[in-house]
Amino acid sequence: MLASALPGLELLATAVVLVDEHSRVLYANPAAENLFEMSVRQLKGHTAAEIFVGAERLQAALEFARSNACSYTEQDLELTPAGRLPLQLSCCVTPVDEGGERGLLLEFRPIDQRLRVDREERLLSQSLANRELIRNLAHEIKNPLGGIRGAAQLLERELPRPQLAEYTSVIIHEADRLQSLMDRMLTPHRLPQLHAFSVHEALERVRSVIRAETPEGLEIERDFDVSLPPIVADMEQIIQALLNIARNAVQAMRGKGTLTFRTRVVRQAIIARRRYRHVARVEIIDTGPGIPESMQDKLFYPLVSGRDGGTGLGLSIAQTYITQHGGSIEFESRPGRTCFIIHLPIVEGAPKH
Asked: Of the four listed, 2, 184, 257, 303, which is most buried by Cβ atoms within 10 Å?
């Protein structure tokens, strides 16, 4: 049998499907089941036209490979499993022959995976540039701030009338406020203090803060994967990153709507070209108006904010913390649903703190 001649495919992260000479599915590995969100039982015995909407180009690729007895790669396929969202895929079709029985081996790779890797590398480079910009900006502002505050204190002592001290007090107070802001801008540069902890513990801390800040009009839902192993990270930095994202979501909803914290284990995931056996996936979802398209490309830039009075540092700092831990952060947004997706590596065998 063709399927019995293909050992080892169960462990591949690449989606592999074997079809017979009539293009009916004989076998699909677990990665293919995950990709198409269909079991082997649902796939087996069916043709591409029966499984997918818009499978004409895939069928043409199968016919070409079969007729010419050669491998053929279709680089840009859009396949839609029945009742599911479209998938952007590339597919390599290779003829196989075992004991006179002929078939085709199909290897599917999501195009968005390659795009995501490119986007992660671009975001990492952007994060490093942001970090340097913030550091330089903070240092440039901190130096004259000390001089301004000191001069205001000296002036206060020389004032002829005590009532005038009100003005110097304003100067000192505002200098202190800016000093505090500069310190927060520099905070991401301290080295992480690593230990093992549950992401759910961090999310519960975030939930408590958000609930205290927004006592009415906001519903917070939790959808936790209880099998999620601990991560090894700086807990305070991870909490701050998640809190910054959650606060942005609440502000986008003007404090009224639903905020959802969701966690899942992702197997065989790639972050910045490095493969991990297991990764923690954290989603923070809001029911706000969505992120304007004009802001989406520069959302993680420092000093960029879509809110009056915002510093534009929250998401930039969140991105810095996440990338410092070897993770990634991305988002999907449309009116009524914005989802920030954070991936953090799971260290195998890490003890719980």
From this structure: 2
